[in-house]
Design a protein that fits this description.
single chain; mainly alpha; 4-stranded mixed beta sheet; two-stranded antiparallel sheet; globular; disordered N terminus
């Protein structure tokens, strides 16, 4: 029916990936870092031109709340009100070398797909696929096969191709008039921040680490300057650019500062970025999707090459995420002409253990 658009595999270094065959978790921090393009890059579109038409109830979004790349899709889905149209399965934050597991569900099976491992959907799409099993992943429910693991394109399509199924009052997360500027901002954020923290954390040599570390903080300083006088990255409303930066910032102090050695300063020590991140966290659709327990469990227990003891730190203190940010003084309209999303669906509420 559908076909992969490129032949680049997403190995154990891919977006929220685990690799079958006993090489996944042990590779973290012990081999040079690279991030491959998504191997399964089919798109779900309004006109079905790639063989996968937008259709309510047909697809299931599989995520890990620990993964920043998957968290983009979780936030976008919630802001756009796609919960009823696109169901969501949440994996255990600690995958094993067989891939992401559905051990949080009764009997250890996803209640919609009936599978124990996300790798089963990959196998149904391409038997013997040698790359990693990554999230986010969209699965075709009738066939049980993977449709896409293209984390870069997925959220853009949710914002544009899925419009007919958006909730009333959904924001325009990728406004056409601002796309060139949004793309430019996102490119720098992806290279130096989203991906940069991984390049620093998984570096196997001092020069490699030093270069990544310098790029992370150079970009953070530029972003801090940009946000000093404006509430959001592009325009006066929340866009895809804010979502992509937020998913790294919210993980910065809990994991990237210590675990990935990005420790020039903490996020909480940059007044502008800290206030910006808190503003988004306190906006419906952002903080109510974040599970700090899942985040720490994944990074500290899975990356055995970086943290061989597997000890998960108790800190940092999280109550600061709920303190005043005063960013509303800069103006801006979070949802533009739209409205905030409604309450989190009962089955998707983050447990108290993962919240401030």
């Amino acid at each position: 029916m559908a076909r992969p658009h490129d032949s680049h595999g997403a190995g154990p270094e891919g977006a929220g990936a685990s690799a079958p065959g006993g090489v996944g978790n042990t590779a973290y921090g012990r081999k040079p870092f690279s991030r491959s393009r998504s191997h399964f890059a089919d798109r779900i579109t309004a006109d079905g031109r790639y063989g996968w038409p937008v259709e309510a109830g047909r697809y299931r979004l599989i995520v890990s709340r620990a993964c920043p790349w998957a968290s983009r899709a979780v936030i976008s889905r919630r802001l756009l009100g796609l919960e009823d149209a696109l169901s969501m399965g949440i994996t255990d934050p600690v995958q094993d070398d067989r891939s992401w597991r559905f051990t949080l569900d009764p009997d250890g099976r996803d209640p919609v797909l009936g599978t124990r491992f996300l790798s089963e959907a990959y196998d149904r799409r391409e038997r013997g696929y040698p790359g990693g099993v990554s999230v986010p992943a969209v699965v075709d429910v009738p066939s049980g096969q993977l449709v896409t693991n293209d984390f870069q394109q997925l959220t853009l399509d949710l914002a544009t191709e899925w419009r007919a199924l958006h909730r009333p009052g959904a924001p325009d997360l990728y406004p056409e008039a601002l796309r060139e500027e949004i793309d430019e901002v996102m490119e720098g954020v992806y290279r130096d921040v989203n991906n940069g923290v991984y390049r620093a954390g998984f570096a196997t040599g001092q020069e490699e680490y030093d270069a990544a570390y310098a790029a992370v903080f150079r970009r953070l300083e530029l972003l801090s300057e940009r946000l000093a006088g404006r509430r959001y990255l592009v325009g006066d409303t929340i866009t895809e650019a804010d979502i992509r930066l937020f998913t790294t910032l919210v993980r910065f102090d809990p994991v990237y500062h210590g675990h990935f050695k990005c420790n020039r300063y903490k996020l909480a020590e940059d007044p502008v970025l800290w206030a910006y991140a808190k503003d988004l966290f306190q906006t419906p659709g952002f903080g109510d999707t974040v599970d700090f327990h899942h985040i720490k469990e994944h990074y500290y227990r899975v990356h055995t090459g970086v943290n061989p003891t597997g000890i998960v730190p108790d800190g940092p203190e999280l109550r600061g995420w709920l303190t005043p940010h005063h960013r509303e003084e800069l103006g801006g309209r979070p949802f533009g002409d739209g409205t905030p999303p409604g309450p989190v669906p009962a089955g998707e509420v983050v447990p108290p253990s993962g919240r401030p």
